[in-house]
Design goal:
The protein is an alpha/beta fold and about 325 residues long. Helices cover about 35% and strands about 25% of the residues. The strands form three sheets. Strands 3, 4, 5, 6, 7, 14 and 15 form a seven-stranded mixed sheet that branches. A six-stranded parallel sheet has the order 10-9-8-11-12-13, sandwiched between helices. The longest helix is centred in the C-terminal third of the chain and has 17 residues. The radius of gyration is 19 Å and the shape is globular.
């Protein structure tokens, strides 16, 4: 079969190689899946760079979430078992963790429903306890992670403010349903949030960016507000001033969604049921900006790594997908 493999760490476009390899062999409790669609996530770039919290042995295939097909023809959502990641024609995955792909979504959309939306749901509901009528501020609102949070926030009845970088991404955020879009390239984020909220600030901030975005959040967070830290796409990990959190009476909440797979897998399954319901109702729908063939995966991962993408880019092996 064909699979992209990384033999040394570096930038995805430089170190990913498309090779002919043997199909992976399932271990105990695993199943072989044919890849119908593999969604690109920022962690795929971190894997290539050797900067992710999980470091599979070299060589490995990146690709952390897919829509696949079992040998008996079922469409499922899965996290491939590294080092046999999703940018390949076949993967292995833990049988107990397979989730049914929603009938309301095609393969690319189903592949993108999992990590980003699970992270958004747990961040907004389990960690921040977002309430209807509250104001939600989403950084990188046009990206894969941010776009999911925007849709989930609207589904929860919140007023959603999206922060983006550039006019093209601003238009995407508007189409996603943001009540207000702030272009950080041309607008003052702090001032715009305060003006939109009558000086009160955002009740919940969803931050997959870190760096300056986190600093801005602390300056426009409401009384009893909650900042949910889900990643550091900017490459800069902030050092929170806890005296500031004390004086302004806000909370900083960390979210590592992958831990729920280990600590509370039943909650992950229950969340998938809720996401499936919301998808069937049309309240959420993954934003697939591109569907690229397997041969173009390295370039696509690099564009995600560089922040040059909107929504989700999904890799479709030849002859796969619907």
């Amino acid at each position: 079969m064909q699979a992209w493999r990384v033999h040394e760490n570096g930038e995805p476009g430089e170190v990913m190689r498309l090779e002919e390899v043997d199909r992976p062999v399932p271990g105990d409790g695993q199943v072989l899946l044919r890849v119908r669609a593999a969604n690109i996530n920022f962690p795929d770039a971190l894997l290539c760079r050797g900067e992710y919290q999980v470091r599979p042995p070299l060589p490995f295939t990146p690709g952390v979430e897919i829509c696949g097909e079992t040998e008996d023809g079922r469409r499922v959502i899965a996290n491939p078992a590294l080092p046999f990641g999703g940018f390949a024609e076949h993967v292995v995955a833990d049988a107990a963790a397979l989730l049914p792909a929603p009938d309301s979504l095609d393969d690319a959309e189903a592949a993108a429903l999992h990590i980003g939306y699970q992270t958004g749901w747990f961040g907004l509901h389990r960690r921040a306890h977002l309430q209807a009528g509250e104001t939600l501020l989403v950084h990188a609102a046009a990206g894969g992670v941010g776009s999911a949070a925007v849709q989930l926030g609207k589904a929860a009845g919140a007023k959603v403010i999206g922060v983006v970088g550039g006019a093209e991404k601003a238009e995407v955020a508007r189409q996603l349903g943001c009540d207000l879009v702030i272009d950080r390239h041309s607008e003052n984020v702090i001032g715009a949030v305060k003006e939109a909220t009558g000086g009160r600030g955002a009740d919940v901030v969803y931050d997959p960016v870190g760096g300056e975005a986190y600093t801005q959040s602390t300056k426009c967070i409401a009384f009893e507000g909650r900042i949910v830290v889900v990643g550091f796409a900017s490459g800069s990990i902030p050092a929170p001033a806890l005296n500031h959190a004390l004086v302004k009476n806000y909370a900083v909440l960390g979210l590592h969604w992958g831990l729920y797979n280990v600590k509370d897998p039943a909650a992950v399954a229950a969340c998938h049921g809720e996401l499936t319901r919301l998808a069937a109702e049309g309240a959420i729908k993954p934003l697939i900006s591109e569907r690229v063939p397997l041969k173009d995966a390295a370039d696509a991962v690099q564009r995600v790594a560089d922040g040059r993408s909107t929504g989700r880019i999904t890799v479709i092996p030849e002859g796969a997908g619907r």
